[in-house]
Amino acid sequence: MHSTKNDLPSKVRSKVAGILGDRLADATDVMLASKQAHWNVKGRTFFQLHELFDKINESAEEWVDLLAERIVQLGGTADGTVQATAKRTSMAPYPLEITRGEDHVEAMSNALASFGKKVRSAIDKTGKAGDADTADIFTEISRDVDKYLWFVEAHNQ
């Protein structure tokens, strides 16, 4: 951990930075998966899904930035390379061979649901650790993830 005048105890900052780093890797994974879907979706609903997956990507970029900046604010180092993400992500691999809109809807809804669950867990963990600010960041991300999960799932309902 880097030196900072942030008044959160070092032990709290270190623990929270670890939780943030785990979710940073997952958010980066979701961001890249949404681009995979955006580039490769085909079918009758191509345009709608192409646009939706791009919007998910734009929001995921914001989640990544929020998480990375909070890590650094706490005195940690944000690991944002593809290599670091690949080592640390807890997300299931996004299928590379799919093209049908319905298959991307299923895969993206699975990714968003999984990420949302991990983010909600992080809200509890960071709140209990004593960092309400980070819990608030996770709450903001959770609302956004749930919104996009709703948008994606609506395509198969």
Characterization of this structure:
- With 157 residues, this protein is mainly α.
- It has one domain (10-156): Up-down Bundle (Ferritin).
- Helices cover 75% and strands 0% of the residues.
- The chain has five helices and no strands.
- The longest helix is centred in the N-terminal third of the chain and has 31 residues, at 10-40.
- It is elongated, with a radius of gyration of 16 Å.
- The N and C termini lie far apart (47 Å).
- The model has no long low-confidence stretch (mean pLDDT 97).
Describe the structure in brief.
By secondary structure, the protein is mainly alpha-helical.
List the uncertain runs: none
Order of helices and strands: HHHHH
Number of helices: 5
- Tell me the fraction of residues in β-strands, as a range: under 5%
- Tell me the span between the first and last alpha carbons: 47 Å
CATH level 1 name? Mainly Alpha
Roughly how much helix do the residues carry, as a percent range? over 70%
Q: How many strands appear in the DSSP assignment?
A: 0
CATH topology: Ferritin
Shape: elongated
Rg is 16 Å
Taking the sheet with the most strands, its summary is:
none
- Give the tally of structural domains: 1
- What is the CATH superfamily classification? Ferritin, core subunit, four-helix bundle
Overall residue-averaged pLDDT value: 97
CATH architecture: Up-down Bundle
**What is the structural class?**
mainly alpha
